[in-house]
Known about the structure:
Blueprint (H helix, E strand, L loop, with lengths): L21 H33 L3 H35 L6 H28 L1 H9 L4 H14 L2 H17 L4 H4 L1 H20 L2 H18 L17 H32 L5 H36 L7 H28 L1 H9 L6 H14 L3 H16 L4 H19 L9 H26 L8 H27 L6 H26 L4 H10 L5
Amino acid sequence: MPSAPSSTPGFAPSAEPPPAGLAGVARATSIIAAGNIVSRVLGLARDIAKSYFFGATGLVSAFNIAAKVPMWFYDLLAGGMVSAALVPVFSTYARPEKRAELWLIASFLLTLCVTLMTPLVLLGELFAPQIAWLVSGGMSAETLRLTASLLRLTLPAMLFLNFAGILAGLLYSLKRFTLPAFNAAIFNLGIVAATLLFARPFGVRAMAAGLLAGAALQVLLQLPGLRDTQLRPVLDWRHPALHRIARLYFPIVLGLLVDMVSRAISYRLASTTGDQSIAWMDYATTLMQFPLGLTSTAISVAILPTLARQAAGWSAPEDSRDFLATLAHALRLVLVLIIPATVGLFVLARPVVELIFEHGDFLPADTAMTTMVLRLYLLGIIAAAIDLLLINAFYARQDAWTPAIVGLVGVFIYLAAALTPSFFRPMRLSDLIVANAIQLSVHALTMWLLLHRRVGSLRGQRLGHTTSRAVLAAAAMAVPTMAALWGVGQINWPGQLLSELAAVLLPGAIGAAVYLALMNAMKVPELALTAKLIRRRNPL
């Protein structure tokens, strides 16, 4: 193992050397995090434009459903394969001497994608009204008709999204992180540009067309990273790697099918609480996903190839040491980032929603509901952050069955938690959000226990030490953050925009400064260690 880097001024050095490969993981994380930052900013711009032009009306709910359906199919197909099967298997053929086999495997999957997705898109175009009814039948007849119309615009995006997903898995396995890291960014850019340019003459259909354009741009974005590849149309099942991918993907597709049905049911249930409910849920989800994408999502993607290589080299139980050490480092870093982000976003939820969304047709009542939904979503965000890393740890071991089975159980937990209150009173939107937090928490706890049983214990990896200090520092930071928020509200600012910016930026900066100072005082080194690793010049 490489020696621990020297301490960064103002921070304590690490108590132990990082596991081999962590420097590469840290730099890959920084690249993916940069892509996520751009994506989240553009995602916020997308939702700002959406809220400005269309508020939180049935128009937005119709678009959200039309956008979700192709994304569900992407998650079911290429999206489900990238972490669970493509990167772990592709990584074993990424060495120069095996590249010819890698091109063959990727070529087959790309050809299969086009062959399967084309008729699926055509069927979707034919049955768009029926799909709209299945997913959101609780909405008004007019909103349902609009949803079907928008679906016909967005469904072809399924082909481009899945094609781009396979290309992303190929590039990740080659440790070419930069271009696929910006896939989501270019996707959101297409929606933002189309909305700003064409919302006035074409209404919400401009957003649907932008979604299709953004999906196509994802494919074009990745082509420069494929200059040395040898991809061609081929349909040949004979390569053993394809059977490995199929075996890994089979449990994933079962779990994702159930999850897709569950999400469709969730939207159907939400639609019964009002046409605006789905819009409020999606606005809140955008804000919740921002810190999650910058922390756990980025680290999970970056760490997967390293974990896969470490798992592939096991010959005895004690060989899991580096694997667990790498996972523990990633978990500690996620915890020191997501815990303060959760507390800060909870405290500043209302001013954040006001700043980003309360313009145009987005009314103060929409702000109140979106704030409520966001705060309830935050109850499960720490569990979600941990869960992403644990799931990828199992994928790295080419174990897709465990996450799939746990996910299946989690769906039933969600449905039970969501539906139980309706036996005693009419269903509320809050019931669905709380049920989501319960599902995430149970799922993460179960994955943790199974990792302990099947891979090894994370005891002795300073997880409790780091978590307790992050919780203490985040709790302490909440007080000055709330005080700063109150103080900003007492000032007569010269404009509404300046007032809204001050209500978010000043308390947020004070809270962050307090948190970092307290973490330094308690000698928690993860942030400084990561910065040092990123600056190392070792090749990925």
